[in-house]
Amino acid sequence: MPNMGKPRTVAIIQARMGSARFPRKVLADLAGKPVIWHLLHRVSQCSLVDEVCVATSAQPADDDLAEYVTSLGIRVVRGSEANVLQRLIKAAREAAAEIIVRVTGDAPLVDPASLDAQISGMINARADFCISDQAAANINEGFEAFTMAALTKLDQEAGADPIAVEHTCSYFKKHPGFVKTVELPVPEELQYRGARVSVDTPPDLEFLNLLHQRLSAAAGEIDIRDVVRLLRAEPDLTLINAAVTQKKAGSISRTAVIRCDASAEIGLGHIIRCLALAEVLRDEQSFGITFVTAASDVASRFIAEHRHSHVTLDSAQEAWPQLEAHLVETKPDLLVLDVRDGVPRDVVAGIRQRTNILTVSIDDPEDKRLACDLLFYPPVPQVERMEWTELHGERLAGWDWVLLRRQFHAAHAKKVQSNATHGEKLNLLVTMGGSDPAGMTLKAARALKNVSSDFHVIFVLGAAFCHEPAFQEELATANYSYEIQRTVTAMGELMLRADAALACFSVTAYELATVGVPSIFLALSEDHEESASAFVKAGIGQSLGLHHEVSEQQITQAVTEILMDTSRRLSMTELALSMTDGLGARRISEKIIHQLEQRA
């Protein structure tokens, strides 16, 4: 128990549900418990803290958080959402705090011993603010100790300063003479640079879950010193969230609305590439992302898995007035359009003018593209045939602008560095899309029975694959070895195993090229067939044409030839790796930031 003569010390955890980058993160599951539970559990272990409470906003969005914390018997103080300083002051006054330990709601590995050290260090030095050595490589962050007198002075003398209002303690750091400050050394066992142990984005949460698994730690029982020892031995573990950028105090908060759709009928390509862009905008540029889609179970599932906000359009009303109403209400900085619905350009032009929003178009052949500010296209011949004389914005097309998930750049880098072979048998990857309504996987399975080569087939089936009984019947008579990979998430890693691929032309074609996999394509439409011609022209792929016009014999011959011709495969791989690197999403995000900064 704390000493009776010590000033009353209250740990105030600042938390809310409305994080733009990671909505509802404080209630997200970490090792079987909500993130906020970890904070409460660990801070309650501090011997010098008299009370732990949570300061959140009075907004309805934070009702669930307040209800959960209250159910644990913890004081909840609700105040201003925007003015963090006033919320903190209200909590400190209600808890009668003389010393405050402010703990951010995104630091679930906070170390109780370090909090106690800050409290005692400040008391012993008769200081009003305590921080750790700012030059040290400190893995243990997310808390500061200061007196009520310091907080009161901040309110009275700098209460209107944006840094004080939003980040509170950052003001003390930026003005070191404002109150008496003591700086404590960072123990050697807590010194580690390059690891993110706060929860700002879903990759951060994934990293912390991994730490619990690797350390066999129960919820709330990780010792940060054990984390340092683990990461010193295995630094590559930090790659999971290495791309995430920490938002700096005072930096501009930006938001984006992404309009796209996904369904069994139109496929998943639009939403997958938009999620790739959203990932970079959120993790590397600190954007809050909201997806706006037509009602679709598959779209809802994908967006929920990636932890973005989601607005579903009412099918009984026109889509574009609903979209504009959302833009007017939320005032985002950016609108990304990846939807083909035939809307006239004047509709987009009107929305852009009325909302003054930067409008980006992704691979759109329709008339509305001409009203957008930035337009991005893959390297396909159709782009040059379009009419561009009335273009409002800037058009960029080519391999550099292909939108792919981050994992494919990682796979590309591994392929460039590796000369490994896959064994005696060549691996053929067969992937025909999420649902494969045309049954191309069945045709491939039959055709491969006549390939005169010793090879192994990796069949990739999506969650919506709709030919399961017939497919199993075909495999029952297969004369080649095979495996089935279902609903693959680490597709880049799987592609690294492939010596060649037989695929339906789609976004997958660009993924295969990025990983350097020589590929044979079947096309669902004439548009896809024409797009595939860019791969043929570049010497990195072979197109057999429209799937319903391609015979099994043609597939057999094409696969046989590519498996038997080692020099051709190696040449195709080398060319593909030299043309694309999987960084299109990053280039697009940087172009977007440049445009936004020019507008500021």
How would you describe the overall organization of this protein?
This protein has 600 residues and is of the alpha/beta class. The chain has 3 domains: 9-192, Alpha-Beta Complex (Spore Coat Polysaccharide Biosynthesis Protein SpsA, Chain A), CATH 3.90.550; 264-404 and 584-599, Rossmann fold; 420-579, Glycogen Phosphorylase B (Rossmann fold), CATH 3.40.50.2000. The protein contains 23 helices and 22 strands. The protein has a 7-stranded mixed sheet, with helices on both faces. The longest helix is centred in the middle third of the chain and has 17 residues, at 269-285.
What are the defining features of this structure?
seven-stranded mixed sheet, 3 domains, 22 strands, Rossmann fold, alpha/beta, 600 residues, Spore Coat Polysaccharide Biosynthesis Protein SpsA, Chain A, 40% helix, single chain
Strand adjacency order, main sheet: 5-4-1-6-8-7-9
Shape verdict:
globular
Query: Which CATH class of the largest domain is shown?
Result: Alpha Beta
Question: Count the helices. How many?
Answer: 23
How many domains make up the 3D coordinates?
3
Instruction: Characterize the biggest β-sheet.
Output: 7 strands, mixed
Low-confidence stretches: none
Helix coverage percent of residues?
25-40%
Brief description of this entry?
The protein is of the alpha/beta class.
